Amino acid sequence: MFDENVLPENAIKVSEAIVTLKDYHNPRGFSHRISNFHDDLYQVKCLMGKNLGLDSTGTHIAFVGGTAILIFIDLVAYLIRLNLDLLKPGDDNILDRNSFKFVLYASVANPEEVLGKEIIEGLKQICKQKGLNNFELIYRFSNQKPPRWDDAFIERQLQIHSKNAIKRIWVCGPPVMNEVFD
Questions:
Q1: Backbone φ and ψ of 23, nearest 5°
Q2: How far is CA 67 from CA 20, 33, 36, 138, 139, in A?
Q3: Which site from 30, 53, 130, 140 is most exposed, i.e. has the minimal number of CB atoms within 10 Å?
């Protein structure tokens, strides 16, 4: 059940939410409950978590592993709508199409396991077709035995992008990957 009293008067009121989650198979975990008990009702009281803290300009770089790519799907979807001029007036000035850039480094087991692959590669294709430079995608597929991202790789990548103002760097992945960036 959703408590509509928390919404402003002019808000669109809906009683359904679409959620993407990963079931870690912990019998006491929330994701497991949602995945396996479809008839349960949940009350959403407020939004939780941080936003991405985007600046409207500059380079924003994400190094992600596995399911962490899902954190950035909303940003990818927004860039698609921005690049195709599908946003309503006022929604189109959050990011500057010409001076904002999102660079996504994604490490996954193999190409078949890229979550959100269609939308992510769709943005890459739209940028190419329209001659836009606000998105760059770099994959690392571990089944192809590439070297792990190490200090030298990270330094090289940051140097490549340092000619533009780097505003944000996110590292989202398993502990082994995160430790490389510490």
A1: -85, 115
A2: 10, 19, 20, 16, 14
A3: 53
Residues of the chain with pLDDT under 70: 1-21, 38, 42-50
* Tokens at 132, concatenated: 């836009």
Spatial separation of the C-alpha atoms in residues 100 and 88, rounded to whole Å = 19
Give strand ranges (E) for 95-165.
Answer: 100-108, 135-141
Token readout for 43 is 């009350």
Residue 65 CB partners (closer than 8 Å, separation 6+):
106, 107, 108, 172, 173, 174, 177
Q: How far apart are CA 64 and CA 69, in angstroms?
A: 6
Predicted model pTM: 0.76
Residue 78 tokens read as 């927004």
Q: DSSP letters along 161-176, please?
A: HTTS-EEEEEEES-HH
- How many alpha carbons lie under 13 Å from residue 31 in its C-beta half-sphere? 8
